[in-house]
Amino acid sequence: MDNPLRRIDLNLLVTLDTLLAEHSVTRAAERLHLAQPTVSVQLARLRRIFSDPLLLPGPRGMRPTARADALREPLQQALADLALAVAPAAPFDPAHAQQTWRIAASDYAAITIIQPILDTLRRQAPGIRLALVNLEPPALARQAEQGDIDLVFHTPDDSPPGLRSRAMFTEHYVLAGRRDHPQLKRRPTLARFCQLEHAIVSPDGGGFLGVTDRILQRQGLSRNVVLSVPHFGTLLSVLASTDLVAMVPSRLVQHQATLRVRPAPLDIPGFDMHMLWPERLHRDAGHQWLRESIAQHAAS
Question: Which residues form the HTH lysR-type domain (predicted)?
Answer without folding.
Answer: 8-65
